[in-house]
Amino acid sequence: MTSEALMAPPAAPGLFRRLAAGRVFPVLAIVAAIIVIWLAGAIWLNAPQIEDAYQRAGQPLDFATLVHEGWNAKRPVLPSPQQVVTDLWNSLTLSPTSKRSLVYHATITGSAALSGFALGSLLGIVLAIAIVHVRRLDLSLMPWVITSQTIPILAIAPMIVVVLGNLGLTGLIPKAIISMYLCFFPVTIGLVKGLRSPDPLQMDLMRTYSASSRQVLTKLRWPAALPYLFAGLKVAIAISLVGAIVGELPTGAQAGLGSRLLAGSYFGQTVQIWSALFVASFLGTALVALVGLAEWMVRRSMGGRLT
Amino acid sequence: MSLVYQGADQPVTALQDINLTIERGAFVSFIGPSGCGKTTLMRAVADLEHPTSGSLLVNGVTPEAARLDRAYGYVFQAPALYPWRRIEANVRLPLEVMGFDKAEHAERAKRYLKLVGLEGFERKFPWQLSGGMQQRASIARALCFEPELLLMDEPFGALDEITRDRLNEELLRLWRTTRKTVIFVTHSIAEAAFLSSKIVVMSARPGRIVKIIDNDAPPERTLDWRESPQFLDVAHQLREALNEGHAHDI
Predict the structure, then answer these.
(1) I need a surface site. Which of A228, A236, B47, B225 has the fewest CB within 10 A?
(2) B15-36 pLDDT tens trace
């Protein structure tokens, strides 16, 4: 290569290249692919009932009509994206206190999920600290912590609802407790590993200072464990929402995203199911982002070099 | 004093028949091949290991009592700074743990960071400093609570020779000004001969003392002293003793 070639300023990359190199483009590409598959799927899955209807009416069916009917079916097997978006828009622009507003239902499920997350994280943190400090608990408690998650939540949820309902506890509390049951696990597992992560030299240093185990916890184990804790919290907050929704199914709850899903499937309202699913996923994303923000702030105050 | 580890298949004698007295204010180096137990001996002094027989007194009390009394500062092979604490906060760590008066923290951290030449780096995080600077910060951390005894385990082993030479000179200056007792582990002949007032040569398997060499180096020495006949003589004696210790092995 000549020196001139080396000196020449690099050609400004085109818009397409810059987009392709960025983060937005790959995400948009996947979204576009999903929409195309979805549109095609809506026609394919709804075609039998449309063909059936036209045959009975004795009318001819051309492809353009099939596409139009497939994307605008009254009771679609798979609703088209535009039907879901319209339904979402309608229910999100309603007054948030309306029983048909998805904001109203998301608030109810979200508050149960957040309560469960708070309780579960607290329980997870307490368990992890106990397990790390008391060898007997490590041996006796840890297997139970793991076993607890091998039981399907769908099996325990009705039991919790029935028992707590008998005690007069209904509404938010049973849902929060089901959420907590799922939440504490990733927090405990992550934090136990994190609290044990300081290297021997860092531990020896504390010993040369004759530090108490409380000091070792607050000044060494806890700060060293924070990256592990946040990894656990991110998983926990995502499944806290799953817990809250599952908790709404057996009660026949009147409100909440879970009840919308259930009602939708009772009455064959697939559009309603899909709308509720989308709102649940937006809510989940927002909750995970909330933990991510907290992590970012903590990391920055700790030198920003924690992995 | 002896120290035997329970190894996986058989007991390992890490230290055997160690008999040694270190005077207050001395700079004593332990030198020997890897595996000769010099680090183990120092960890026993620090109450991080326990002798299986014999007795060990630190400032006239047991190592445990000395540790509880916060009698020594320990400088490890690696700086072992806490990455989430700024340099100043790392130096304050022992003061916080030992319950020093809060009002004193800032003043002491500042004084000792200045002593090791790290003024102006108080607000940096460890990863923003070079290896040599990190090790200096860890020395400031060991000094700031003013222990009577400084234990240093190959503190400059991971550094390049240029940095190591400079830190050797600085350490000598620190020792002269603070008059602390220093126990220093190294595997560098030049480092041991340059720094110490007394050098203990050890050999491996089992770890034992081969020879103790007194070094009457002038107190006000600089790196140039390493070219003097006196330095060369000490270095020569050290090499001979190390070879002798090695000969037992073969």
Answers:
(1) B225
(2) 777 777 777 888 889 988 877 7
Q: Give chain A positions within 8 Å (CB) of B67.
A: 207-208, 210
- Measured CA to CA, the distance from residue B242 to residue B186 in angstroms comes to 13
pLDDT at A1 over 50: no
- What pLDDT was estimated at residue B24? 80
Task: Compute the mean pLDDT over every residue in chain A, rounded to the nearest whole number.
Answer: 88
Q: Residue length, chain B? A: 250
Check CB contact under 8 Å for A208 and B84: no
Which SS3 state, helix, strand or coil, does residue A251 take? coil
Beta bridge partners of residue B204, listed in sequence order: none
The DSSP secondary structure of A164-201, one letter per residue, reads HHHTT--THHHHHHHHHHHHHHHHHHHHHHHHT-S-HH
Query: Complex ipTM, two decimals?
Result: 0.84
Chain B residues within an 8 Å CB radius of A302: 83-84
Q: What local confidence, expressed as pLDDT, does residue A279 receive?
A: 93
Where do the structural domains in chain B lie, given as residue ranges? 3-71+147-249, 83-145
Interface with B, mutate which of A207, A208, A301 (most B CBs under 10 A): A208
* CB of B33 closer than 8 Å to CB of B242: yes
Q: Which two tokens stand for residue A58?
A: 């004795």
How distant is the alpha carbon of residue A2 from its chain centre? 55
User: How many Cα neighbours within 13 Å face the side chain of B1?
Assistant: 18
The nearest alpha carbon in chain A to B69 belongs to A210
With a cut of 50, which residues of chain B have pLDDT below it? 250
Residue in this structure with the two tokens 């329970």, named with its chain if needed: B6
**Is the separation of the CB atoms in A60 and A67 below 8 Å?**
no
pTM: 0.82
Q: Name the class of domain B3-71+147-249.
A: alpha beta
**Strands, E assignment, chain B:** 3-6, 11-15, 27-31, 72-75, 149-153, 181-186, 198-203, 208-214
Longest dimension (CA), chain A: 92
Quick check: helix, strand or coil at residue B31? Answer: strand
Amino acid at A59: Q
